[in-house]
Each structure stands twice: as structure tokens, then as C-alpha cells.
């Protein structure tokens, strides 16, 4: 089927530059690893304990998972029609009726900033949990923000080196990561189910908690939905890897859907295990890392440390997959001349057939976002908060444009007559969740508790707009075609 893949790419106007080494499982693995239920739930669980408590953690997970499935299905249909590394920005340019360059430009930059923020946030979280493990192992150790930044920088360096010199190994690691997540989840769940002498009663699932500082319980519950939304980001990774995927028109959308479905089911089991293992709600919600404190209280320090290693491993796998996906987006965006120094960033290593320079740009940009954490955790949070909002808005643009296009031509994987209704539900959910991400999350609102996501998003959009009108609109018209199918076929590097 390699010929069909190449013919599809040539029809979109691109020569083949990347090696197709990803099969169906590999494509699924990249998104499953980036969604990363262990990393997402352990990072956001404490927030959910105060914004709705068990009722929202459990039933919010179920509800939001269903909404994310609509987003994934709508994205999958588009991915089947346009299986290219450009993914969201490419399809936005192709689906727009007018102003294709502008739609493509904004989508690409939202996607780029969101992905860089994802890489930075994941590795910063990993560094934080590594510090927590060291403190558990050696109580006299006192972590500092500077040490967290140093550890996160070291992680970035290793991930960049892996994407540069051991590309085949990265593909293998992504396969391993799936089993690490699934087996790790089972180990954590079994430990929390079997070892504690007692659990919360079944009715605890309906327990509601509001410690956000806002009096309105409904508002707190809506904020609690963000726990699941924070976790379900990055499944566009399958889309970005489509030029390296065999039978991409089918395996890419299947990869997106499988990643969401398996994450939803496995995540629900993990969420239930953590909720029912809660011992002292007040003490655990007030801990520096509430889910870690739950493990310690329920299982003892020794077992908790072992399980924390599983969590840290999951976060490291997530960061690596994030960087790989980020790199492909940079490669494709540069191929169409949308980034400064585009000629550099879309060049491909003759040895590995991967965009090595784009790897180091992804690492450098993530480092720029991590560095403010050196002097202010709030500053870091402000910058990477645009991660989720940027990604979901980038998801929403091509789905919205597909809704407007009456003569959309679907690929082999499609939703038939349900395509438009599914896309409409996806757009409504993306708008709603994006608004939630930008609302105040804690009261009273102070400099440290303020939600900087709208400011960060505004800065990104302002820069993109000034750049667009000053220069880009004259040279960037959206995805470019390198010639007819026969002409680009002659340019294939492999």
C-alpha cells in the first residue's frame, strides 16, 4: 500500500521526504502516549478535588470523554482526507472558502504554540515529580525552582538527542510507552484496590466539594471538567505523523479514535481507584501533590515511591512523544514557508530521514517557556497555560471550516451522513471548553492565582496578527503545491 500513500501525498502537492516506519499500532501509540492518562490525571487530580470533588472527577471524566470523542471523530475524518504532517493548518487552508492563507496561518501558529507549551509543561511536571520522589527518598533534600528548571532542561536535552540520533529507537520507545501506561495503570489500580485496609463507600462517587473560593457550585463543577480536558490533549499527534504512517488515510483516523477510547476507559478505572483510596480529604487536598499523598496514605511510603516511578516514567514518555509530534508540525509549517528560517527547519537528515533541525528548534522553544520557572512558578504557568487553549482552538478551526464547506470530499475513513452533526457537536464543545480554560479558577483572584491563559493567548494572537499584516500575507498563501503529482513524484528523496 506504500504506492497509494505516496500517490495521496503527491496529489496534495508534496514529494515524499520522510520514511514510512509507522504502522497502525505506532500511529495509535504516539497519541495514546501524548494523552497519557497517568501523567494527566496525576497532574490535575488535586485541582479536581477542590473543583467538584469525586462527583465531577468521575462523572465529569465520562462526560468530557464522550465530547472529546466527537472532536476526535471530526478530526479523524479530516485526517483521512488530508493525511499530511501539516495536519491542522494544512487542512484549514484546504477547507477555507476564502482567505485560505489567513486561516492556515492562525491555525498553524496556535498549533505550534500549543505543542511547544505541551512539551514544556509535560517536562516541567516530570521534573516536579522527580523532585517529589527525591524528597521522599531523602527527606533532608529541599527542591528549589532552579533545580526544577535544571532537571526539565536535562530531560529536554535527552529527548532532543533521542529524536536526533536514535530515531528507530524512538519508534520502539513509543510502542513500549503504551504498555508502560497500561501495565502501570493496572499496577497502580491493583495496589490501590488490594492493599488498603478500607475504602470509601460506593456513595462517595456523588460527594461534591467546592473549595475554589467561588460560592456558585455549578461554576466550580464546570471548572472541574477541565481535569479531563487537560488530559485529553495531543491526539493530533497521529495526524502529524501521517506522512510516516503506512495506509495513512485509514490508520491515522483509527489511531486518533483508538487513543481517545482506550485513554477514556483506562483513565476512568484509574480515576475510580484514586477517588476510592482517599483517606483524609482535607489533608490530601492540601498536600503539595495530592495524588502522591493519597498513595502514601493508602499504601505506605515504600509502595508509594515505587508507584511514583511509574508516574515519572509515563511523564517522560509523554514528553518524548510530544517533541516528536511538535517536530513534524514545525517541519510541515516550514515546508510551506510559514516560519522564519523555513529553509533550515524543513531540511531532512540524509542519515535518519527525519527533520533534525526542527527537533532542536522544538527543544529550544520549549526551553524558552521553561526558563521563567527559574524565578516564578506563576510566570511559567502563565506561559504554558496557552498550551491547551491553543491546541483546542487549532483543533476547532479545520472542523469549523469543514462544517461550512458543503462539498467536502471525505477520505476512505469517514462518518457518512453523521459527519456534519458530529463536527457541529465538536465545535460547540471546543468553544465551551476554551471559554472554561480562560475563566478565573480560584477566588480571591490575586497575582499568583490569576488565570493568565487569556493574556497568553492574546499575546500569541497579537504577534501572529501583526506579523501577518506586516509581512506574511504577501508571501504566505497557505499550503503550497510543489507541482503536479508526476512532478513531485520525481522529487521524492526516498
If you had to describe this structure to a student in words, what would you say it looks like?
This protein has one domain (21-473): Amino acid/polyamine transporter I (Up-down Bundle). It is 71% helix and 1% strand. It has helices at 2-11, 24-35, 37-50, 54-81, 87-95, 100-137, 145-165, 167-194, 217-224, 226-231, 237-240, 248-276, 281-285, 290-299, 301-335, 342-345, 356-370, 377-384, 386-404, 419-438, 453-475, 485-489; strands at 51-52, 209-210. A two-stranded antiparallel ribbon has the order 1-2. The radius of gyration is 22 Å and the shape is globular. The mean pLDDT is 90. One of its GO terms (biological process) is amino acid transport. It comes from Streptomyces hundungensis.
Break the fold down into its secondary structure elements and pairings.
Blueprint: H1 2-11, H2 24-35, H3 37-50, E1 51-52, H4 54-81, H5 87-95, H6 100-137, H7 145-165, H8 167-194, E2 209-210, H9 217-224, H10 226-231, H11 237-240, H12 248-276, H13 281-285, H14 290-299, H15 301-335, H16 342-345, H17 356-370, H18 377-384, H19 386-404, H20 419-438, H21 453-475, H22 485-489
Antiparallel strand pairs: 1-2
Helix pairs in contact: 2-8, 2-12, 2-15, 4-12, 4-19, 4-20, 5-6, 5-19, 6-7, 6-15, 6-17, 6-19, 6-21, 7-15, 7-17, 8-12, 8-15, 14-15, 15-17, 19-20
Amino acid at each position: 500500500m506504500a504506492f497509494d500513500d505516496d500517490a495521496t501525498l503527491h496529489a496534495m502537492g508534496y514529494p515524499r521526504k520522510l520514511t514510512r516506519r509507522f504502522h497502525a499500532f505506532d500511529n495509535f501509540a504516539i497519541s495514546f502516549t501524548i494523552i497519557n492518562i497517568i501523567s494527566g490525571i496525576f497532574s490535575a487530580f488535586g485541582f479536581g478535588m477542590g473543583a467538584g470533588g469525586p462527583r465531577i472527577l468521575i462523572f465529569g471524566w465520562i462526560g468530557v470523554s464522550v465530547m472529546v470523542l466527537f472532536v476526535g471523530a471530526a478530526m479523524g475524518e479530516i485526517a483521512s482526507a488530508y493525511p499530511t504532517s501539516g495536519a491542522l493548518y494544512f487542512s484549514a487552508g484546504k477547507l477555507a472558502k476564502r482567505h485560505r492563507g489567513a486561516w492556515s496561518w492562525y491555525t498553524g501558529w496556535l498549533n505550534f504554540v500549543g505543542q511547544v507549551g505541551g512539551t514544556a509543561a509535560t517536562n516541567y511536571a516530570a521534573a516536579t515529580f522527580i523532585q517529589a520522589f527525591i524528597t521522599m527518598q531523602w527527606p533532608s533534600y529541599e527542591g528549589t525552582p532552579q533545580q526544577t528548571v535544571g532537571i526539565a532542561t536535562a530531560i529536554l536535552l535527552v529527548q532532543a538527542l533521542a529524536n536526533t540520533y536514535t530515531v528507530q529507537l524512538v519508534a520502539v520507545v513509543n510502542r513500549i510507552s503504551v504498555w508502560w501506561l497500561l501495565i502501570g495503570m493496572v499496577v497502580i489500580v491493583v495496589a490501590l484496590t488490594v492493599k488498603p485496609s478500607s475504602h470509601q463507600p460506593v456513595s462517595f462517587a456523588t460527594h461534591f466539594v467546592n473549595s475554589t473560593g467561588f460560592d456558585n457550585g455549578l461554576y466550580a463543577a464546570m471548572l472541574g471538567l477541565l481535569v479531563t480536558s487537560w488530559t485529553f490533549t495531543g491526539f493530533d499527534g497521529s495526524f502529524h505523523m501521517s506522512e510516516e504512517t503506512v495506509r495513512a488515510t485509514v490508520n491515522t483516523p483509527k489511531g486518533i479514535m483508538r487513543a481517545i477510547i482506550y485513554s477514556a476507559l483506562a483513565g476512568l478505572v484509574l480515576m475510580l481507584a484514586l477517588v476510592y483510596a482517599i483517606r483524609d480529604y482535607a489533608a490530601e487536598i492540601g498536600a503539595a501533590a495530592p495524588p502522591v499523598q493519597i498513595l502514601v496514605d493508602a499504601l505506605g511510603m515504600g509502595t508509594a515511591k515505587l508507584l511514583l516511578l511509574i508516574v515519572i516514567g509515563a511523564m517522560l514518555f509523554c514528553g518524548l512523544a510530544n517533541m516528536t509530534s511538535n517536530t513534524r508540525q514545525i517541519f510541515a509549517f516550514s515546508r510551506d514557508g510559514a516560519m522564519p528560517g523555513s529553509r533550515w527547519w524543513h531540511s531532512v537528515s540524509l542519515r535518519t530521514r527525519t527533520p533534525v533541525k526542527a527537533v532542536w528548534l522544538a527543544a529550544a522553544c520549549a526551553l524558552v517557556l521553561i526558563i521563567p520557572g527559574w524565578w516564578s512558578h506563576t510566570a511559567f504557568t502563565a506561559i504554558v497555560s496557552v498550551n491547551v487553549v491553543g491546541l483546542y482552538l487549532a483543533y476547532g478551526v479545520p472542523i469549523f471550516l469543514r462544517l461550512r464547506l458543503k462539498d467536502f470530499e471525505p477520505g476512505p475513513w469517514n462518518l457518512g451522513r453523521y459527519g456534519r452533526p458530529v463536527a457541529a457537536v465538536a465545535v460547540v464543545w471546543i468553544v465551551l471548553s476554551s471559554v472554561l480554560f480562560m475563566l478565573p479558577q480560584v477566588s480571591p483572584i490575586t497575582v499568583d492565582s490569576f488565570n493568565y491563559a487569556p493574556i497568553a493567548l492574546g499575546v500569541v494572537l497579537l504577534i501572529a496578527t501583526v506579523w501577518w499584516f506586516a509581512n506574511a500575507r504577501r508571501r504566505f498563501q497557505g499550503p503550497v503545491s510543489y507541482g503536479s503529482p508526476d512532478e513531485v513524484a520525481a522529487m521524492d528523496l526516498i
